[in-house]
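Comment thread on ticket #2218

A.B. wrote:
> Attaching the input chain for the structure job we discussed in standup.
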Amino acid sequence: MYRTCLIDLKYVNTVIKERPRDIHKGDCGRVLVIAGSVGMAGAAVLCARGALRAGAGLVRISAPAELYPILQVGVPEATCVSRDVSVLDYDAHDVIAIGPGLGDDEKNGEIIHEVLKKYKKTIVLDADGINTIVRADLGQALMDTEATVIMTPHP
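C.D. wrote:
> Ran it. Output below, let me know if you need it in another format.
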């Protein structure tokens, strides 16, 4: 079943509450950002910063290793992790954001297919993530996923 809605201030005020002073960052949401490629590290930085500003307590960026120095300077609060699907523990995260600056590497289709198949929480698909769904013919996997999917296409 598909549902569309706009997030407005009234909705936000029902979701975001004041946090206790003694809260731990692990209690505030864990986000995995699968983003970035050579020449597009900034997209991963912006996505990770956005997750932190929105209230995530822990943000991990899954990106090519050659981007780690840029990412660690751009978002020192985030940790960088491998993009190897056999290593990633998707279920350790409350949300997976996929796509910002991901590029068109064929391996991205495998990663997105794996996430759509195994992950059951919330997935945010951005531009290159959506493009990969089309390029890798993952429309059926998108329809079959048990996750809640939020798509943020570019015009």
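A.B. wrote:
> Thanks. Noting for the ticket: DSSP finds six helices and six strands in the chain.
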